[in-house]
Write a structure and sequence with these properties.
The structure is a homodimer of 509-residue chains.
Chain A lengths: L1 E6 L8 E5 H7 L6 E5 L4 E9 L7 E4 L1 H7 L6 E7 L4 H9 L6 H12 L5 H14 L3 H13 L12 E5 L9 H10 L4 E5 L9 H5 L9 H11 L1 E5 L7 H13 L4 H14 L4 E8 L8 H17 L3 E8 L7 E2 L1 H12 L7 H16 L5 H10 L2 H12 L16 E6 L4 E6 L1 H10 L9 E4 L6 E2 L4 E7 L2 H14 L2 E3 L19
Parallel strand pairs in A: 1-5, 2-4, 7-10, 8-9, 10-11
Antiparallel strand pairs in A: 1-6, 2-5, 3-4, 3-6, 12-15, 13-17, 14-16, 14-18, 15-17
């Protein structure tokens, strides 16, 4: 039977159609069952929701993803028949039952995910099964390959290709802006793609976007890297490992990040740009994604082994991420600090030292002896700054940009030390909440500037950090949140006061 | 800011609102985040989807569940603010991490589920966590209580209350229609609620609906039971343990049924009718839900223990369910077979024997000695039939109904034995697929009638079973499916033929 197409512009994330309840009953389908929409040119599988009034009998409501598929194919009417759920749902059940999956089975699941063929329920079952059952190294290798194969890839005309990545959780980790130009200035190729913030204060793409264009095409990434050695692009603009973004859609609300999925997600994106040499930064410490050394070592070994199986030479650096890297958090503020470091005006040593050390390892992987010394010379000599300006220019930024040109948000507040003493803890997660309350990453000028970091001595009433915002209201919200959750500890400060009545009240002064 | 309400009649299963992408960005919410809709009278929490065109800027699209909540409260405009996800999502994370949950924590999760406060992703995470982490007996007890407390209950003016339940998987298990009238005729109270088919060929409610009204109110269930001792109602019409139906929504597409959830689901519904004595039927054998004796014993022990904690005396009967019970499958056909058994014209012994045995145990739980003998006397004497007619009359059926008045589907086909030999296997799951292909449970006349059951001798070409359908096309589909999947085995029959080329072809004759 033909159903009249009714366009419904809702992005439900899945391939969804809406049927009138009477039609659905007649067809023997219920909510979340699947149907095939048949047109002379193509057949589309979609998940059913039912309604008594959005669509009349004889109509089919077609949501965004299906609408795109039908574009130019059919706009009048389609045949609809009931169909079974994809076989990969059975394979997910195998994983739930604790079985290992074969290469073909994993490819089938990932293909269905990449093609939006699984419902949120099925996708969550997949993520939960990998979280709770785990995956063998074989399975993780298959997963990585399947994620590469179901997406786009870049093939540079030159080689070898170098790349690096930092596992999340350390705010202010802006080393990309030093490492890429140092490595490129040393004559190596580094087509770096980065992400935007999901739950962090801001991602590398959010930062660079304040001073350059990050939405590059595959061709631009290839051409810029071949021409000047390095690029800093937003990974979301290219279709590398598209299954990953879909999986993240369900991981994010549950704050889940299964072990094997993290490895496959990183490795697939590196494989997609054709990396031959890959350095992984694993920040550890309170509030990072990988808090313990033991887990960091396990990750390191597994990344190296999976790399071996994918013909990629992988090395890992375990770094300290238990407090923010450098002094600035927030899109414009981090761009500013990065420029300051490149100009030789670094406000603290941690960004420079970490960047030089990481770039040094990459140079040695590329056969350059005394990598760290060479990296430092490239930075100190201004060659890194010159290369960064080339990258800026290639990505439509201002090649003459200076750090003082980058202006943070116009509204500013100071958070003062509550007592005399040494700073014993800066809480990454709480600081991220404060930065986000101030508007980061959406408001480019929002963020934090640290006046005192861990181990430094402060006097009562001295500024601990500044909050910047583009919006007065958000600044107030961030200040209130900071006063409430206290994202730092000063030795001697009373953290909580338990009065005699037994109630607990948090000190507010 | 006020948003203009736009009604969108889609039942998405969750509390969902649609915001224009620009408004969502401004508000800092993304798809699947939550917002509060604030009216002077009440505040409603809902999950956000975004759209570029279904709603304009300044509008909020309100789907079914939210629409119901707003009815009579507000139809013009509402304030909307971003809000965090419910605390129960954190508690689900505890379960994912392998922690045991307290009574209060489980109540919080179940309350949020019953109030439609969790998204499909969060709900699936809960089901997967209970499936893979399991629950202690304490947790299962808390779960049962929470499911009772978040729904309606019935309090009869008389006591004690008797009840029974069969775990699924044995097709044709129509014993309710004998057990309820026998027990009621013996003077005991048995307010039986039953379900409709989810994945089975048909449920008790689907069967009884062909000859009586099953959508009874709480008051009707109470009054009929108090007046005549027994009732056979559809549980879906009353709000017992409403969290269960919502959980089933995600279990069904994954064919999952976590151990502890099964126990809590059954026990909560029995507690909701105030059962003091409860008999559980656990059919075992190939194709049933509980295939192994060992698992059946574990279920039995845990049901009994949870019963003890809930002040309910529980006994269990492990029965054989490795082939269909009786000779008929399908709504009208099972109603007909049940009437035949009550009239003393049973087409086979299995329904009568099982019903008398089960009723006998219930009578003994009620202090009646020689329960099975008494049960058989009640059946043989026609007292059970008389009581069944009383129930029929109380539920708006025809009290003078005779089995020959019940007519199955008008289209019929015979499936013939492929060779001489003994029937060695009737495959429950495949038979259910054939019955459903024929139209069961939606088409009341659709179903199967067995001519030969396990252990019986057949000659080649003799009818194995008949397929009935209300619709010629569906009959053909069912016959084709039966020929393809062969839901039986006859000793001596070739099941598959592997030709020399290595291809496998299934024999079709």
């Amino acid at each position: 039977m033909k159903y009249k197409i009714k366009e419904i512009n809702i992005d439900a994330g899945e391939f969804t159609v809406i049927l009138n309840v009477k039609d659905a009953k007649e067809m023997g389908v219920r909510s979340l069952d699947r149907v095939k929409l048949i047109t002379p040119k193509k057949t589309i599988t979609a998940v059913v929701e039912t309604s008594t009034s959005v669509v009349e009998e004889g109509e089919v409501g077609v949501l965004c993803k299906v609408l795109e598929e039908l574009k130019g194919v059919e706009s009048g009417a389609v045949d609809i028949v009931r169909t079974d759920k994809p076989h990969s749902v059975e394979l997910i059940k195998h994983k739930i039952d604790g079985k290992s999956l074969t290469s073909e089975e994993i490819r089938e699941i990932i293909t269905d995910i990449a093609n939006h063929n699984l419902t949120d329920i099925e996708l969550t079952a997949y993520v939960m099964a990998t979280q709770l059952r785990g995956m063998t190294l074989d399975e993780t290798t298959y997963l990585t390959k399947a994620m590469v194969e179901t997406g786009d890839t870049i093939k540079l005309d030159k080689s070898p290709i170098f790349d690096f990545h930092s596992i999340g959780g350390a705010p202010g980790n802006k080393i990309t802006f030093l490492v890429v130009p140092i490595v490129a200035a040393a004559g190596l190729l580094i087509p770096k793609t980065s992400s935007r913030a999901i739950s962090s204060a801001c991602g590398t793409a959010d930062i660079f976007e304040t001073i350059a264009r990050v939405s590059l095409t595959k061709e631009e990434i290839k051409n810029i890297t071949e021409k000047i050695g390095g690029v800093i692009a937003w990974g979301g603009n290219v279709n590398f490992a598209p299954a990953d973004d879909i999986i993240i859609r369900v991981e994010y609300p549950l704050s889940l990040d299964p072990y094997s999925q993290l490895i496959a997600s990183v490795m697939a994106k590196k494989k997609a740009v054709g990396a031959n040499f890959f350095l992984l930064d694993i920040p550890i410490g309170p509030g990072t994604k990988v808090t313990e050394t033991e887990l960091a070592n396990k990750y390191a070994n597994d990344f190296i082994e999976i790399g071996r199986r994918l013909d990629m030479h992988v090395e890992c650096a375990i770094t300290y991420g238990g407090q923010p890297i450098g002094k600035h958090i927030g899109p414009s503020l981090e761009a500013k600090e990065a420029m300051m470091c490149l100009e030789g005006k670094a406000p603290s040593t941690s960004v420079v030292e970490k960047s030089v050390a990481m770039a040094g390892i990459l140079l040695e992987m590329g056969g350059i002896h005394n990598g760290k010394t060479v990296a430092r010379e490239i930075l100190d000599s201004g060659k890194a700054l010159a290369k960064f300006r080339e990258i800026l220019e290639a990505q439509d930024g201002n090649p003459d940009l200076k750090s003082e040109d980058i202006i943070p948000g116009e509204f500013k507040a100071e958070i003062l030390a509550p007592s005399d003493g040494y700073v014993i803890f800066l809480d990454n997660k709480k600081l991220v909440r404060v930065a986000r309350a101030a508007g980061s990453p959406r408001d480019k000028g929002a963020g934090l500037v640290f006046k005192k970091k861990r181990g430094e001595k402060v006097d009562r009433g001295e500024p601990m950090f500044e909050i910047y915002a583009d919006n007065k209201h958000k600044l107030e919200e961030a200040v209130n949140l900071s006063n409430l959750i206290k994202p730092y500890q000063v030795e001697g400060m009373i953290i909580a006061h338990i009065p005699g009545s037994g109630r607990t009240s948090t000190y507010s002064k």
